């Protein structure tokens, strides 16, 4: 028997979403062909910043002073995952994220670029949706 083809459209990936593709956020429509699995949080080993003046979140691993980032896990086909990768902002890259229970793939941003541009640390807002709601208040 042949091993599974990693490029097969029937292969799936578990993807942690914590930004504008969350339910109720403007880019959620792009998740329509993916299957919502659950709401969860990461282990408290990450930080979240508002990149590009609030265009998207930038998360990265930290050895100390991390927080648990809330988000959602989706199961998506490899085709959908590749489309998601192609639509992510420049410099974002997929990598394993450690969740409260289990792991998935998330999109990270290089910490050195976050620091270079001095983007606002929004780790204490309670997630991307909470941050966006707070900054939308008049």
Number of strands: 8
Query: Order of strands across the widest beta sheet?
Result: 1-5-2
Low-pLDDT runs: 1-6
Sheet/helix structural class: alpha+beta
CATH architecture: Roll
Shape: globular
In CATH, the homologous superfamily goes by the name: Gamma-glutamyl cyclotransferase-like
Strand content: 25-35%
Task: Report how far apart the termini are.
Answer: 62 Å
CATH class designation = Alpha Beta
Largest sheet: 3 strands, antiparallel
Q: Could you say what the CATH topology is called?
A: Hypothetical upf0131 protein ytfp
Total count of helical runs of at least 4 residues: 3
Mean pLDDT value: 90
Radius of gyration: 15 Å
| Share of helical residues | 10-25%
When the domains are counted, the total is 1
The SSE order reads: EEEEEHEEHEH
Describe the secondary structure blueprint for this structure:
Elements lengths: L11 E6 L17 E7 L4 E6 L4 E6 L8 E8 H10 L5 E6 L4 E6 L2 H7 L2 E2 L6 H9 L2
Antiparallel strand pairs: 1-5, 2-5, 3-4, 3-8, 6-7
Short synopsis of the structure:
With 138 residues, the protein is of the alpha+beta class. It contains 3 helices and 8 strands; from the N terminus they run βββββαββαβα. The model is unreliable at 1-6 (pLDDT under 50).
List keywords for this structure.
disordered N terminus, 8 strands, 3-stranded antiparallel β-sheet, 3 helices, alpha+beta, 138 residues, Hypothetical upf0131 protein ytfp, globular
């Amino acid at each position: 028997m042949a091993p599974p083809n990693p490029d097969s459209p029937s292969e799936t990936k578990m993807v942690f979403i914590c930004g504008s593709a969350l339910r109720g956020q403007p880019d959620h429509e792009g998740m329509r062909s993916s299957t919502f699995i659950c709401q969860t949080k990461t282990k408290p080993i990450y930080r979240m910043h508002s990149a590009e003046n609030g265009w998207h979140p930038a998360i990265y691993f930290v050895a100390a002073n991390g927080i648990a980032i809330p988000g959602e896990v989706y199961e998506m086909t490899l085709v959908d995952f590749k489309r998601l990768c192609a639509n992510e902002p420049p410099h974002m890259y997929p990598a394993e994220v450690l969740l409260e229970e289990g792991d998935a793939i998330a999109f990270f941003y290089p910490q050195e670029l976050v620091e270079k541009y001095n983007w606002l640390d929004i780790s204490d807002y309670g997630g991307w949706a909470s941050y966006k709601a707070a900054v939308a208040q008049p």
